[in-house]
Amino acid sequence: MKSHGRLTAKPSLRPRELMTEPQVKDVWTARIVTLFPEAFPGILGLSLTGKALAQGLWNLQTIPLREFGVGRHRNVDDTPAGGGAGMVIRADVMDAALREAKQGSSAAPVIYMSPRGRPLTQARARALAEGPGVTLICGRFEGVDQRVLDAHDVEEVSIGDYVLTGGEIAAQVLIDATVRLIPRVLGNQDSLAEESFSIGNRGLLEHPQYTKPAQWEGREIPEVLLSGNHAAISDWRQAEAERLTKERRPDLWRAWADASSAADMDPTKDRQLSGASDQSRGHREPEKE
Ligand code: ADE
User: Fold this and answer.
1) What fold does the segment set 198-281 form as a domain?
2) pTM for the complete prediction?
């Protein structure tokens, strides 16, 4: 197991190898089962997530699947039962890797990054950030034997309706979206409140932003933003957020509009977060307005 971003040494009683690598204790931890441990930390080692990793605000451990392979060649996969193309990761091999991950934290959910999974949402990232961490399975080949997914109560999560070569990039997306929500990782927590999908933004996309110079290549900043009238600026931003959401994401718009009219009918109720930000409601195709 490789550990990235380390502050303090934590001894391990694991017999498989002498764990000399220091790890940060009691912080949000991502454990990643992968055939390509060298792909980590990748982009997560840079910028805010990288700084936070070095500061020990979160922890990253890779669990190289190959180490659990069988035979002289440390095989991790075999042909699919029932025939067909490609190879499937063996249940016994994945089971050994997941047992290793569970030694670190038995409470963390286990997620298999897969185009077949439920879509990743801001709400899910928020929930994960509040927990102890996550164990992520990065697939290659045709998939993973279903029995080991069932045995470990593994949830499948997708980062979008397209197919990647493997789960490593998807895992980095999930970790990035989650780690930035851990307190003290983002320098300015205010920026979280208004961004797209945030609770403060009530499930709408974020309004456009401008900065100096006031004139650029004949284009001007909308006058209201220079007016100093905070109420007018707030109204403009709300209207722009609504316009963009309606144009680009009819699914989010419909959920927001439904929640708004429900709130209008019941003055004790505030508008709720949109359905598309809530993993539990599942995926809905955008509809034409
Ligand atoms: N692995 C391959 N494609 C993926 C996707 N769209 N989301 C998550 N993991 C994947």
Assistant:
1) Trp Operon Repressor; Chain A (1.10.1270)
2) 0.84
